[in-house]
Amino acid sequence: MAPRKRGGGGSRGGLSFVFCCFNSNDHPEITYKLREDFALQSMEPALPMPGYDELDNMFSELVDELDLTEKHREAMFALPAEKKWQIYCSKKKIP
């Protein structure tokens, strides 16, 4: 028995349904509204950033765990100290 084809509109059957809504130049407007009780979480770590030497030691341990290529390791260590601290806190689950 030969397999049956889905739909009966030929090769454009499904596409005509999608494009029927967009015949004009008017595109739908996407809007959003936040609830009044909704609060965004801060991306800043709650703990103060350690000194640069201590941070580099902590960050080095983290980068070693990630098993990155040399190119990516260099890119990680080239980041500013604040970004290193954010990454460290997010990976180590420090609030």
UniProtKB/TrEMBL annotation:
Pfam families referenced in this protein's UniProt entry, alphabetically: Drf_GBD
Domain Formin GTPase-binding: from-to ranges: 50-93
Q: Which domain of life is it from?
A: Eukaryota
**PANTHER family from the entry?**
DISHEVELED-ASSOCIATED ACTIVATOR OF MORPHOGENESIS 1, FORMIN HOMOLOGY 2 FAMILY MEMBER
- The name this protein carries in UniProt is Disheveled-associated activator of morphogenesis 1
The protein's organism comes out as: Ataeniobius toweri
